[in-house]
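Question: I have long wanted to understand how a fold can be written as tokens. Here is the record:
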Amino acid sequence: MTTSLSRKLLMPAVLAALVAPLSLAAHAAPDHAPHPGDHRDDIRQEVFERAGIDQQTRDELKEAREAYHQSMDELRTEHRQQVDEILGDDGKAALEKAKQQMREEHHAERQQAREARVKALFDEWELSDATRDALAKQHDEFRTQAKALKAQEFEGPEERREAWKDLFQSHHEALSEYLNDEQMKALGNAMRPEGHGPGRPHDHGHGPKPPEPMDG
């Protein structure tokens, strides 16, 4: 990286860091507005007001932030072009195939581990085959409904939350025909990926975090 490019990236980054915590605070706030950018800007302006930062300084910070994002976009584009030139079409295809195989293997390993944890619980509870089949059917129905709900369009976030709330409630009622509250809690923990503690079952609308790049 050249010295001029380093300066171009460094100075906006330093200035942008002054307002970065505000964006994080806005993102962490529950029930944020449908347009998070607008909400973050409102919080940022409120903090500026309390800090006594004048409009000229705010404009300079905004320009610095925009310059930083533009510089990073240009750098990512340049990096991707370099990677494409180094790998070539055959190299890119091989890399994508290897990453896909690793994702599938990882998914299969997690699936097997989850099934083993669930089976261990069912054995411990001495559930009948009929009960196990009923629970498996209920799980498949829930997954189908959740997939359809995730793809559904809603007028706003409140409608989406209510829809998911109703789905989880109906799923809970269906499970309660076969399991008590303690068993349902244990089953929920067993269904989560290893290393994930109790919490919200899914981050609906956002999907899983993509894997880190493996191409440099």
